[in-house]
Each structure stands twice: as C-alpha cells, then as structure tokens.
Amino acid sequence: KTAFHNLSVSVTIRKASLFAVSNVSITRSLATKSKHKVLTVLYEGGEAGKRNKNILGCVENALGLREWIKENNLENQLELIVTSDKEGDKSVVEQHLPTASVVISQPFWPCYLDEKRIQKAKNLKLAITAGVGSDHVNLEAACKAGITVAEVSGSNVVSVAEHIVMQILALVRNYIPAYKQVINGEWDIAAIVDRAYDLENKHVGTVAAGRIGFRVLQRLKPFDVHLHYYDKFRLPEKVEKELNVTYHPSVESMVKVCDVVTINCPLHPETEHLFDEKMLKLMKKGSYLVNTARGKIMKADALVDAIKSNHLAGYAGDVWYPQPAAKNHPWRSMPNHALTPHYSGTTLDAQKRYAAGARELLGNWLNGKPQREEYLIVDKGEVVSRAYTSGDATKGNSDTKA
Ligand code: NAI
Q1: N or C: fewer beta carbons within 10 Å in the chain?
Q2: Is 267 in the pocket of ligand 1 (CB under 6 A)?
C-alpha cells in the first residue's frame, strides 16, 4: 500500500465509523459473570469540564462512557474506573492495573504502560488510545503479553494539521513577541520585524506524509511555498505532482534545504531522538522546527542548545516528555518558541470523534466483533500498524530515556 492509498481509505471508513458508533448495539454475546474493569485515565476538567459537557476527554465527562454504559444496559458487565491519578506506586492506576481488562488513555494525559506495568496488568486484554499515537504503551511488552493495542486513527488529523499551519505562521511572522508588545503597552515595530518574514517562497518540509503530514502539505500549497517530504513510503507520483512536492530519500537530505521543518512521524525506536545534535546541526541556520508528533523525537537538551545559539530561529509544537511537562522543563524558558501544552489534537471537534471511536473499540471488544483494521496497532502478539511496523517498534520503545 502507498501512504496515500492508506490515507484515502481511512478517511472514508472514518466517516462511516462515526455513523456506526452511534448505532452500536451491544448484544452481550460475550457477557461474562464477572464484570470487566475498564480503567480510564483522563485529565481533570476543573471548572471548564463541569460547565462544558463537550469536553469529553476529561474525568468529569469520561468520553461519554457513563451515558453509553447506561444506554446499553452494560452496568452488569462493565466496571468503569475514571481517574487522572496516574503516577507513582500509590496512584489509582497502580491500584487498579492488576485487575483491569481494558485501559483507556489519551496522548494528552498519557497513562504510560511501560514493561513493569504491563507485567503487573495480568488481566489486561485491550489498551485503547482515545486519539492517535500509542507510544505511551510499550509495544514490545504488549506483544509478549498478548494485549491488543488500538487507537482511533484519523480522528484528530485535521485538528493537528491546522495547529501546525498556525504555529509555522506564528514563528515565521514572529507573532508571539508582537502580541506580547500589545499586552505590555509597547509599540516597537523594529524589534518585531527584526525577525518577521513572509512564508511565501520558503522551503517547507515534513518528516512523514501520513494522515497529518499529507494534510499539512495540502494546506500549505496555497501559500506558494516549495514543499518537501520524507517518508518511508512514497506518495503516488500523481499526488506528488498535484502538490508539487519534492521527495527526499532521507530526513538528512530534506532538513538541509528547508527553512521550516515539521515532524509528523510516530514515536518508535527509529524516531526516538531522531532530532539530536547531529540532525539539528544539519538544519539550515535560521530555520524553524515545528513538532506536534512526540516530545521524545527531540533530544531535549540538544534543542535548547540549538535555539540558544540561534542556529534555529524558532521552535513550536505541543508535545513534551513526560507529560504533563515539569514546571521547570527547559523548553518552557528557552527563547524564540511558540510551544503550547498538548492540545492540537483535542479540539472540541476532535474529542467528539475520538470519544466515539473509543466507545466503538470497547463495544466491539465486549461483543467479540473484529476491530477496524486501521485502528489496530498491536494484535495477536504482533505490531500490525504500518506506521510502527517498519520502525521495528517491537525492539522496545524505551521507557526511561528522556
Ligand atoms: P499515520 O499513521 O497516518 O502516518 C504516519 C506516517 O509516518 C506514515 O506515513 C509512516 O510511513 C511514517 N513513518 C513511520 N516511521 C517513519 C520514519 N522512521 N521516518 C519517516 N516516516 C515514518 O499517522 P498520523 O495520523 O499522521 O499521526 C502521526 C503522529 O502524529 C502520531 O503517531 C502521533 O505521534 C502524532 N499525533 C499528535 C497529535 C497531537 O495532538 N499533537 C494528535 C495525533 C497524532
């Protein structure tokens, strides 16, 4: 399959899936006498979560699972635990892991299922990512333990692509310092334009042209930029021509010619610390980097050095390691960044889609129905997702390296 083929198929199926989810009927064919424990790890919603029922990804609204269980009369089959308490030996997660059949987590507030936790989770059958990106699960350990790992592929890819375009423009046009001047009662045009450019005519490249990377290319085309990409799978020639995008045989060859690089590959052993000192040095002096893929794709200190030395003109994105990011994380205070907390893929529109997808995955599992192929990351002891397979994701996504 080509990357593009995979992409178009997933888009069509996704539309169908949203419809199917609302009509899901639970036949209870697989009903067991004892309840299945579903451990759901989400962020606290606080005031906003209480007020806004559309913030489905928070503890208060629990992906709509409470209502869904009620509507489908599943109270006798499922025991739902919802918590934000995920770190440390005494956490609610640690307490319930040994007896949980299903863990639902999100990349925005990830429940790291490392090797130790997977060994502890003797009853675990299914790890659902309410969103996209299952690197918080040690896939090698999941394969060994026979745990199915599934995510809601495609659910938030437009949300992320839009965020990337926004952050590229914010960096290149020097938006954040200009905004700060307004807040601070200042009016110093020269200080802003000192670092402000047009995006037009610049060279912009994406590491990976999967669902998100491809959509970034599509959205940037009307800006009259020179587009570049590297992916393990090449787009069809026709698509390359339509986008007028240049393919590179390696990340190295691409970053050398780009004014802006955006990272859109999954985190697996091949991409962990891909952007280290060496790769950052290869980037053009004065170029920008936007990473909404995963924090660990960057070598954290190497990035700080590249920014502080002005080799890179700016960095943006929304992904950190670990999450939530520590108050004193060095990226927070480095100059020339436009970083946000991890929220690009969790707009209210995206939440509706991935919450529906998570419920669909749970319902299918309970009913013994097959899952959608494109949602599966690990199945029957094997990594089956193309995005992870060729990176040899089974060679341990390291649990400890920052
Ligand atoms: P996708 O599966 O559609 O595309 C991934 C692409 O990466 C594929 O084309 C694959 O061939 C390519 N790839 C895999 N290994 C590679 C390597 N070593 N070098 C270059 N290319 C490689 O995934 P999608 O939906 O585009 O998402 C990509 C990643 O973005 C996710 O895995 C996740 O980590 C991140 N993401 C972040 C979100 C956020 O809120 N910040 C939300 C959704 C995804």
Answers
A1: N
A2: yes
